[in-house]
């Protein structure tokens, strides 16, 4: 079991595991993709690389190539990107035609998909492209479809929806679903479905409900009997969004979502400490803090300031003759200077005398 909720502050929207099971890709609503290496991972379970494929666009899908030497990243932008195994950019898709001007020319729009109107559309690529799908099933769900999954033998199609249902379809008879599983809360657009390696089981995650007590769970279904086999509790406070069953690791990867709004730096008390460079830049902008302090008093003359320059010797002499500058502290007796305040201290004691007046 591998959970990525500790490194992401938002919903984990996509995941991909390579065929060897050594590297995992995960993405979130914070626009970032994180790369994990199980062979080089320590107890802190941190990613070895983090990147933002398209600035300001959420990551929708991640997938490895058959040789696992590169992976495809699809974001909310109009251009997907290809990266190598270490996360270096290899290429970017062209933007292409963004609009449909001819109903007979819809190349590159869809192959198979669950549409926002609740319908499932499937295109057959062998005869060629066309404007109409080969299979169109309207009103399959009452809300947006969040995920579809084909079986490898091409017989079964699974669909997951916002309405809290999972439907099993026979690709040869798409008029009615073979089975409908309800009471599967789904609050995230990336909630998917996954098959087991032998495709005898399929799994999906469920979201936590507002007033519910079950929390996020992982549900297992039997393909042959078309029944719910088990529900495994994952977290009382997190929703299970993405799940995958790896054939070699013999384990299930599930990625969770925390239903808490994280607003960093909303309160000054909880803000992160800025870097040293930013602290220095802030100090330099402050005129009081960036002001050069005055030099210590070491020069000759009154207070160490007069007589420090050539033109001030005459000024200092005239001040002394006029009585404006009187340096008599070197000629005074320290004892007499202290005793001249004895009468005033006896008449108005402040500290020592009142403390010992009664003892």
From TrEMBL:
Pfam families in UniProt: WD40
Signal peptide range: none
InterPro entries: WD40/YVTN_repeat-like_dom_sf, WD40_repeat_dom_sf, WD40_rpt, WD_repeat_GAD-1
Keyword line: Repeat, WD repeat
Ranges for the WD repeats: 138-179
Location of the region described as Disordered in the Swiss-Prot/TrEMBL record: 274-305
One Gene Ontology cellular component annotation held by this UniProt entry: nucleus
Biased composition (Basic and acidic residues): 281-294
Keyword Repeat part of the UniProt annotation: yes
Membrane-spanning ranges: none
Protein name in the entry: Transducin/WD40 repeat-like superfamily protein
Native organism: Anisodus tanguticus
